[in-house]
């Protein structure tokens, strides 16, 4: 079944990064990518691979948590985008028939208007309704890197009536599992650019990263095949990665959801992050045993990122694997899920999220005011539209490529409407006062550095 262009997400947008081919939009190559015979014969370029450095805070201690990201060539990305929509339609039908439509909440296309705010509110509302509630929040260890290719193929076959994967779908599956990666460090070195953010920005200003002749002569010696060592894993960063992960977890979700219904509990999964909750300790044990003994290859709990809690009388208590309170953090704990924290009484935005908003805002303020000269009114207005509630209106930040406007304050106010009785906006209520104070300070420091006393 051919999907009309109007149903596809941002069909006229063009990605800004440079790759081995020229930039194209999905709309411009729609006739090609919607032709199954052409897709079945298409040769995909290697992905460009880079490592996104991330710092995760656990128990107040920072931990390095790098994530390998692969991004596809522009025409390949359009093919993935189109087939993501096709696979999502098949997945939605299968999930609805299996009774797990509300379990998997990431990358869904049949839940209009739903966001992580709505799902977090649903989870915390369930916990609040119980007199006593046992909760586990966690994720799966090296999830995308350990998905078994054979099992994924079997799950994809189950989406089709004849239990056979069509040639074009199989081409997509094969390209996302048995892939080649060209490290971005090598491409930067070829252009004599530093391995930094500015170096990548300069590389992305080019029409293509390599000429066709240079690509053909060096591709075999430069690419790697990460999946060959273990025969496991799918590439992260592709438009199709999310729906493939959902397809992989079909049987797992069905099994855990059945246990959750039997114990009057709750189960939700956002990609590799999950939450389970039950009103009794026995129900909680059954849910956790079901996760640990699922039998799905590659799905293992991450011991450092999975936490258990008991919520009773408005107090959240950390528990160990034996359901005993942990002495180090028995009281004053909070449940962190989908960017929100619940302390047994109220829900707030996660502090690391708020902190990141202020860090990025202050960085933009420093660029505008830290040069020793007063910025123009036009530039100040653009700054406030970008980082303050001046930009809450989506029309002010509308992007011609089709992306929705708005900024972090748009998200915060939308969350506040969903969590009506919780102090969601408390941490950002005085954001303009803080921005103005930081503006004055950066301007004064800039004047001192330049030695300019003319204010």
Brief summary of the model shown:
It contains 16 helices and 13 strands. By secondary structure, it is α+β, with helices and mostly antiparallel strands.
Describe this structure in words.
It contains 16 helices and 13 strands. The chain has 455 residues and is α+β, with helices and mostly antiparallel strands. The protein has a 5-stranded antiparallel beta sheet, with helices on both faces. The chain has a 3-stranded mixed beta sheet with strand order 4-1-6. Strands 11-12-13 form a 3-stranded antiparallel beta sheet. A hairpin with a 2-residue loop joins strand 9 (307-312) and strand 10. Helix 5 packs across helix 10. The model is unreliable at 396-403 (pLDDT under 50).
């Amino acid at each position: 079944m051919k999907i009309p262009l109007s149903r596809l997400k941002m069909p006229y947008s063009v990605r800004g990064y440079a790759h081995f081919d020229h930039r194209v939009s999905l709309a411009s190559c729609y006739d090609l990518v919607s032709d199954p015979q052409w897709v079945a014969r298409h040769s995909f370029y290697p992905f460009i691979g880079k490592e996104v450095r991330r710092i995760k805070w656990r128990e107040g201690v920072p931990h390095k948590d790098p994530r390998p990201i692969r991004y596809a060539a522009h025409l390949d990305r359009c093919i993935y985008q189109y087939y993501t929509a096709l696979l999502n339609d098949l997945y939605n039908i299968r999930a609805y028939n299996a009774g797990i439509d509300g379990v998997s909440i990431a990358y869904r296309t049949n839940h209009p208007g739903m966001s992580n705010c709505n799902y977090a509110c649903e989870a915390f509302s369930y916990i609040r309704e119980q007199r006593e509630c046992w909760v586990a929040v966690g994720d799966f260890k090296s999830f995308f890197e350990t998905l078994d290719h054979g099992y994924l193929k079997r799950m994809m076959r189950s989406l089709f009536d004849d239990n056979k994967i069509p040639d074009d779908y199989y081409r997509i599956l094969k390209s996302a599992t048995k892939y080649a990666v060209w490290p971005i460090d090598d491409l930067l070195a070829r252009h004599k650019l530093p391995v930094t953010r500015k170096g990548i920005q300069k590389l992305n200003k080019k029409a293509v990263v390599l000429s066709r002749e240079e690509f053909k002569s060096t591709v075999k010696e430069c690419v790697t095949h990460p999946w060959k060592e273990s025969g496991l894993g799918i590439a992260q960063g592709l438009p199709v990665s999310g729906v493939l992960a959902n397809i992989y977890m079909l049987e797992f979700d069905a099994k855990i959801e059945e246990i959750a219904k039997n114990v009057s509990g709750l189960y939700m999964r956002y990609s590799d992050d999950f939450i389970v909750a039950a009103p009794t300790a026995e129900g909680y044990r059954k849910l956790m045993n079901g996760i640990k003994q699922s039998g799905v290859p590659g799905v293992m709990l991450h011991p450092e990122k999975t936490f258990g809690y008991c919520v009773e009388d408005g107090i959240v208590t950390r528990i160990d694997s034996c359901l005993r309170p942990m002495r180090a953090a028995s009281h004053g704990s909070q449940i962190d899920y989908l960017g929100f924290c619940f302390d047994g009484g109220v829900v707030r935005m996660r502090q690391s999220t708020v902190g990141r908003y202020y860090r990025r805002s202050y960085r933009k303020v420093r660029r505008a005011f830290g040069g020793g000269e007063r910025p123009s009114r036009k530039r100040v207005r653009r700054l406030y539209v970008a980082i303050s509630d001046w930009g809450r209106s989506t029309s002010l930040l509308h992007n011609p490529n089709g992306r929705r406007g708005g900024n972090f304050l748009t998200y915060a106010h939308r969350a506040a409407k969903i969590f009506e009785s919780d102090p969601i906006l408390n941490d950002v209520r005085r954001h303009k006062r803080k921005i103005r104070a930081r503006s004055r300070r950066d301007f004064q420091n800039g004047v001192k550095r330049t030695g300019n006393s003319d204010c």
